Amino acid sequence: MNESIVRTLSGIVYIALLVGATLFSEYSFVLLFGMFMLIAINEFCKLSNLRKTIPLIMGIVGFVVFSPLLINTFYTNILLNIGALFMAFMLLEELFEKGPSAPKDKTAKLARLTGYVILPFLLIIKLPFVIVGVYSPFVIIGSFILIWTNDTFAYIVGKTMGRHKLFERISPKKTIEGFLGGMLFTILSACILSQFDNFLTPVFNSSLPWIGAAVILVIFGTLGDLVESQLKRKAGVKDSGNIMPGHGGILDRLDSIIFAIPFLFLYYQILTYVS
C-alpha cells in the first residue's frame, strides 16, 4: 500500500481513538492514556538501552496511586508538576549544549524516564480534571487540537516560506518562519476554540486562557519535538517505535504534549488558584 495512504489511515485511527475515548467517559480516557504511558515507557527503555521490568512497574504503580479517579489533590498535583518541570529544564540544558552524552548510569536513566515520561503522562491524565474539579474532555481535546494545528501549519509555512533554520543541529527541516506561522495559526485556533468552550472560558470569563495555552503549547511543544529528536539521534534510530505505521511510536506522536504538559498544567493551576 502507498506509504502516504498508510500514514493517513494510521493517523485517522489514532485521532478517532483519542477523541472517541476522551469523549466517551473519564474512565476510557484514563485507561487509554495509561496504555499510552506503558507503551511510551517501553519505547523509552529501547532508546535508552534500559531493561523495562522496573520502569513498567514504576509506571503501573504511578498510574494506580496518582490516577485522578483516586487521588487528585492540589498538593499531589503540584508535587508531580515540580518533578516533571525539573526534568524538563534538565533536558533543555542538554538540548542547548553541544554534543551532550546520554546518561549511562541506570539510576540516571530511571530518573529521566520518571521525569520525561511517567510524570508528564500522569499530568496529561489529570489535565481534564484540573480546572473545575470534574472531568472536562474539551480541555484535553482542545489542547490536542492546538498541538495538531501548530504541527500542520508550522510544516506548511516552513515548507513554502521557510528560509532561516530554527535549530539546524538537531532538526534541519525546522525553520523560524515555520515556527512563527505555527504560532499565528495556533493562536487563531485558540480564539475559535474559546467560542465553543463550556469549561475554561466560563470559569475565567475570557478567551485569554486559551491564547495563553496556545503560546505555551507552541513554544514548549516545539522544544519537546527537538528534545525527542535529540534522544533518537543519541540512540541512532529514526523512530521511537513502530506501533503507528507511517508515524512511528507513541513518543513520536506525543513528544510535543508530554514536554509541554508540565508548563501547561502549572499555567492552569495558577489560573485556577488566582481566579
UniProtKB/TrEMBL annotation:
Protein's pathway: Lipid metabolism; Phospholipid metabolism; CDP-diacylglycerol biosynthesis; CDP-diacylglycerol from sn-glycerol 3-phosphate: step 3/3
Topology of this chain in the membrane: Multi-pass membrane protein
Record field: catalytic activity: a 1,2-diacyl-sn-glycero-3-phosphate + CTP + H(+) = a CDP-1,2-diacyl-sn-glycerol + diphosphate
Enzyme class: transferase
EC numbers: 2.7.7.41
Principal place of residence: membrane
Cited Pfam families: CTP_transf_1
Subcellular location: Cell membrane
GO molecular function: nucleotidyltransferase activity
Keyword Transferase recorded: yes
Coiled-coil segments: none
Keyword set, alphabetical order: Cell membrane, Lipid biosynthesis, Lipid metabolism, Membrane, Nucleotidyltransferase, Phospholipid biosynthesis, Phospholipid metabolism, Transferase, Transmembrane, Transmembrane helix
UniProt keyword annotation of Amino-acid biosynthesis present: no
Transmembrane segments: 12-41, 53-71, 113-132, 138-157, 178-196, 208-229, 250-270
Similarity-based family: Belongs to the CDS family.
Protein name according to UniProt: Phosphatidate cytidylyltransferase
Protein source organism: Flavobacterium suzhouense
